[in-house]
Please model this.
Amino acid sequence: MTPFRRRRPGRRLPGSLFVSLPAVAVLCVAGCSGSGSAPRAAVPEPPRDQVRVCEALHKQLPAKVGGQSRRDPEPSSQLTAGWGTGDASIVLRCGIPRPKEMSDPRSEAVDADGVNWLVQQSSSGQTFTTTYRSAYVQVTMGAKFAQDGTPIALFAGAVKKTDPSTL
Model:
């Protein structure tokens, strides 16, 4: 069984990814330069109960994702984490506001090893946001991962352990 499969809750529709300008903006904020410097990421400001979930998640995150070593973004925060640089960057932000795309029935979701994620794709990479959890976790992956969502499954264990499904 593969840990990564595309899923549309409640119905199956022809597959087309929903791309939005907010997703592109997030990629720009969460991306990093190719110079090898640490990426920059806007630090979310979630409610206190979500901060506790995010702090617990931060302690459970893997040291390597998608072949990329841990390289946390600036400014330093337990609400953000990162791996790799440039086109191979992966940036996680925990405690973001609920994306409006989650209300769009055309939005696509994937199940990665038991965690459901909203998928937003652009030419510069992909953005995944957890669904059915008390805190929204967003993972933005650079262009190297534009057609490869498998690294997202590496976050599933930590997400399930620290923020059980609300379903």
Summary: The chain has one domain: 17-162. The chain has three helices and nine strands. The longest strand covers residues 115-122.
